[in-house]
Amino acid sequence: MPDAGPAIAVAGLNHWFGRGEAKKQAIFDVDLKVARGSLTVLMGPSGSGKTTLLTLMGCLRKVQDGSVRLLGQELAHAPEPRLVALRRRLGFIFQAHNLHESLTARQNVQMGLQVRPGRDRAGDSTAAAHMLGLLGLSDRLDYLPANLSGGQKQRVAIARALVGNPDVVFADEPTAALDRDSGLNVVQLLKRLGKARGTTTVMVTHDNRILELADRIVTLEDGRIVGDSGAG
């Protein structure tokens, strides 16, 4: 049975780093709802809280104060088994590709399927090859990371994040290492997944080239939302 409501609902969210006199607030009373199947971009200067907010919504940091509901489930004070089960429904793309150097491109992408319980492993190789093909890497399936360019490695990491058909993709500067055409191809693929499968994407970026593809642009400054193209 599908979850009701938005993919993500944030209410009264605050977050701090450090302790004692070194304690510093990074997120201030953020409220945000992200519709299912949408592509939402988080923008703002360095240190504005974009990545912190992304990792809180993606259950990679503990919610200290306020509420974050992800796919209908509350993250604040959630037990670890619930968080683990939720993470298995997500895809993560970071600037650092974090590929396993001893595995081929195809094998790295297949790892994205291993977190999905109950899958028939027989089709994993085909699924990995298909996703790499969508990202223009059909001729690099059996290459080790050492023999790939930086942009190709990033596309392998993106394929790994998407191959398991995640409900939500959290992406932190996914196009930073890519040329213009490759970057646009990645964002267009995320848009197609949103329409075809209802995949929700939340993306941190400084890449002005892809803003026209976003359904919504949320701007942060000093830990607060100061602009929202989807507001109202």
Report what the structure shows:
With 232 residues, this protein is an alpha/beta fold. It has six helices and ten strands. The chain has helices spanning 50-57, 80-87, 105-114, 124-134, 150-162, 180-197, and strands at 8-17, 24-34, 39-43, 65-70, 73-74, 90-93, 168-172, 200-204, 216-221, 224-228. Strand 4 and strand 5 form a beta hairpin. The radius of gyration is 18 Å and the shape is globular.
Oligomer: single chain
In angstroms, what separates the terminal alpha carbons? 30 Å
* Strand order, largest beta sheet: 6-7-8-3-9-10
Q: How much strand?
A: 25-35%
DSSP summary: helix tally: 6
Count all strands and give the number. Answer: 10
Structural class estimated from helices and strands: alpha/beta
The amount of helix comes to 25-40%
Rg for CA atoms: 18 Å
Shape: globular
- Biggest beta sheet summary: 6 strands, mixed
Order of helices and strands: EEEHEEHEHHHEHEEE
Mean pLDDT: 92
User: Residue ranges: pLDDT <50 for 5 or more in a row?
Assistant: none
Task: Map the helices and strands.
Elements: E1 8-17, E2 24-34, E3 39-43, H1 50-57, E4 65-70, E5 73-74, H2 80-87, E6 90-93, H3 105-114, H4 124-134, H5 150-162, E7 168-172, H6 180-197, E8 200-204, E9 216-221, E10 224-228
Parallel strand pairs: 3-8, 3-9, 6-7, 7-8
Antiparallel strand pairs: 1-2, 1-4, 4-5, 9-10
Helix pairs in contact: 3-4, 3-5
Brief summary of the model shown:
The chain is α/β, with parallel strands linked by helices and 232 residues long. It has helices at 50-57, 80-87, 105-114, 124-134, 150-162, 180-197; strands at residues 8-17, 24-34, 39-43, 65-70, 73-74, 90-93, 168-172, 200-204, 216-221, 224-228. The chain is built from 6 helices and 10 strands; from the N terminus they run E-E-E-H-E-E-H-E-H-H-H-E-H-E-E-E.
